[in-house]
Amino acid sequence: MSLTGSDSDSFLDILNDSLEESDIGSASNSDYVEKSGHDTSSEFSVTVSSESETEDVMHERSDSWISRDHVCSWNKQELSRNSSAIDTDEDEIKALLGLLLLAGVFHSNRLNLCDLYNTDGTSVEIFSSTMSLQRLRFLLRCMRFDDHATRSERKLQDKLTAIRMVFDSFVRNCTENYMHSPHLTIDEAAKYGIKIFELSDSETYYVSKMEVYVGKQNEGPYQMDTSPTAVIKRLCSAIVGSGRNVTMDNWFMSYLLVEDLLKEKLTVVGTLRKNKKQIPAAFIDTKHREPNSSLFGYQRNMTLVSYLPKKNKNVILLSSMHHDGNNVSIGQREKPEIVVFYSKTEINFCLCFIQTIFKMYSL
Predict the structure, then answer these.
(1) How many CB atoms lie within 10 A of CB 97?
(2) Is 361 left (phi over 0), alpha (psi -120 to 50) or beta?
(3) Average pLDDT, the chain
(4) Going from the N-terminus, what domains does the chain have, and what CATH number goes with each?
(5) How many percent of the chain have pLDDT more than 90?
(6) In sequence order, which ranges of the chain are alpha helices (DSSP H)?
(7) Which residues of 131-142 are buried (b: 16+ CB within 10 A; e: fewer)?
(8) Can you give the pLDDT at residue 14?
């Protein structure tokens, strides 16, 4: 089997290149051809011969996460440049997205694509069974989520312009089609080059709202406050007034934020950095305290706790959900209920989410 392409080609390499290329016509002729023996009559590039055919391909639902109008517009632009391309359809695009997800599950997103199509028994068979390497490369290089003709102009105001339309549509559908449990978690998604803040259900791990951190934007509609407090308020905008609780770590957490969210009928549990001026000195000084000891403080609708899991390790949490100093027995030790709740909805949340994903995709 002869494989073509750069030795360093990976999913991420091609996707990154596709966002930077000025013309998708750089794809080679071999990229338009599917593997021998495969029915090519139903395959395609991201080009179609008419708007009506595109209409038939896309979901006839108002909640389609890729707008039919945008797809039609883009397809018309690309038709003249890729008249020899084979048509694609919804099933093939779903298959492509499935392979992208599986590449992440197999930790292969940076692996040379040729290695996924090896014929020596070391490859992942589902890739070659789904589509040829040439077809995969072609679709990846053609994939666009915006109008390339106007990207340069829009990029002056929005660093996320290459995926803004599809990302916002996806997040909107995540928000509109889910009913949260009483407990939510806000945290940064797994680090992989893009910083994404997300609001997730602490019980089901469903992510209902996300925001990509793009740094400082130029003046325009996408310029916004990127401070932790502003990020939290935007993520919580869909649940204000619901009486739910939000768990967060000390990067977001502050006394003033808790006060603001209480006004929106939302409670908060989170860790506090020790440099916060609202923390009494007695909660910082641990010289004369024993390991596994706790110190509580109360003010209006908030409870502050300083917990020493071991000597010289001081964990400070603030909660507007808890209003007493109850402890919970954990084996031979007792921990403040606030600490146990935080561990369950923040720390264990990340671990349980990963375990759940592995179970879903176990082969």
Answers:
(1) 11
(2) alpha
(3) 78
(4) 11-153 (no CATH), 181-360 (3.30.420)
(5) 41
(6) 11-20, 51-57, 68-79, 90-105, 113-116, 125-130, 133-142, 151-155, 164-176, 228-235, 255-263, 337-342, 348-360
(7) bbbbbbbbbbbb
(8) 61
Q: In sequence order, which residues have a C-beta less than 8 Å from that of residue 224 and are 6 or more positions away?
A: 217, 230, 234
- pLDDT of residue 256 exceeding 90, the answer is yes
Could you tell me which residues come within 8 angstroms of residue 7 by beta carbon, excluding any fewer than 6 positions away? Answer: 112, 114
Alpha-carbon distance of 59 to 319, in angstroms, equals: 45
CA-wise closest residue to 208 among 246, 179, 183: 179
Phi, psi of 197 (to 5 degrees): -90, 140
Supply the pLDDT for residue 335: 94
Check if the beta carbon of residue 186 is closer than 8 Å to that of residue 345: no
Count of alpha carbons within 13 Å of 251, Cβ hemisphere only?
A: 10
User: Six-digit token pair at 45?
Assistant: 């590039």
Predicted model pTM: 0.71
What is the average pLDDT across 211-227? 91
Q: Mean per-residue pLDDT for 120-147?
A: 86
Q: Which of 77, 231, 45 has its CA nearest to residue 148?
A: 77
Half-sphere exposure of 75 (CA within 13 A, CB side): 25
